[in-house]
Design a protein that fits this description.
Blueprint (H helix, E strand, L loop, with lengths): L6 H26 L4 H18 L12 H13 L4 H32 E2 L9 E2 H14 L4 E4 L5 H4 L3 E2 L13 H12 L3 E5 L5 H4 L2 H8 L2 E5 L3 E5 L21
Length: 252
């Protein structure tokens, strides 16, 4: 029932359909030894979907970036179904799944908007109430100490001048050039406080040994749903106990 009322249902059904159409198109190309325009579209879209579904995935919500070619492949594949009844049934079923998902997403967006807040600490931008509550003390710390927000986002300093943020965008390990990564590590080393942003993609942080080495040399003082706060040894209070990292990988 959960998946039936979210965009997940349409995404799963469409993905399976595209893989099927892509395999069928590949078989036709091998047998006929020529590539039609429709088969080319199906094979390319199926390959792209496989890359993004199994390797190049990002944070929840980013599937909207590549949903258009998923829809394109579904429609092209449906046009090749010989039975008119089966073709119509297939399109109607996916359309209903899409409508259910869109309705659920619209409802979720409306509820989020109604429960959001806008204050000076959020730069008068709308934010979830729990995020604003976690962010306010961090913003106050940035007025007293050199604070670096470790996030895959890059523009936070435009809204919060006392907060330093990365100048390179990253989602997964191995994505940055050596010079970009060294610049990021230098920012971390030069900071008194590092705040992990848990609201976006975190795999590049969690699985990069150089980033983890720097964090492990600090003291984890605060853990919330949205952030983890690490302080340098000179700022660690007398008798303050460092918290265990709840997101540390096993064996580390």
């Amino acid at each position: 029932m959960y998946y039936a009322a979210t965009p997940v249902l349409w995404w799963v059904l469409a993905t399976l359909a595209v893989f099927y159409f892509g395999l069928r198109a590949t078989k036709e190309v091998v047998v006929q030894k020529k590539v039609s325009s429709k088969n080319a579209v199906l094979i390319i879209c199926a390959a792209l979907q496989a890359i993004f579904a199994f390797h190049g995935y990002g944070v929840p919500g980013q599937e909207i970036v590549y949903s258009p070619w998923l829809l394109l492949a579904v429609l092209v594949g449906a046009s090749q179904i010989e039975s008119a009844t089966l073709r119509k049934s297939f399109v109607v079923a996916l359309a209903l799944a899409g409508l259910l998902g869109s309705a659920a997403q619209a409802r979720r967006t409306l509820l989020d908007w109604k429960s959001s807040v806008r204050t000076a600490d959020t730069a008068n931008l709308y934010a979830r109430a729990d995020w604003a509550k976690d962010w306010s003390p961090i913003l106050r710390l940035s007025h007293e100490h050199k604070l670096f927000l470790l996030s895959y986002g890059t523009g936070q300093h435009h809204y919060f001048p006392t907060v330093e943020s990365p100048d390179v965008w990253f989602v997964r390990t191995g994505q940055m050039f050596a010079a970009d990564k060294e610049r990021l590590l230098r920012q971390m080393r030069n900071s008194e406080i590092i705040v992990e942003d848990l609201g976006g993609a975190t795999s590049a942080i969690d699985y990069d040994s150089d980033i983890q080495r720097i964090l492990n040399g600090l003291c984890l003082t605060e853990v919330t749903l949205n952030f983890q706060v690490w302080v340098s040894p000179p700022l660690r209070g007398a008798g303050q106990v460092c918290r265990p990292n709840p997101r540390a990988r096993r064996g580390e």
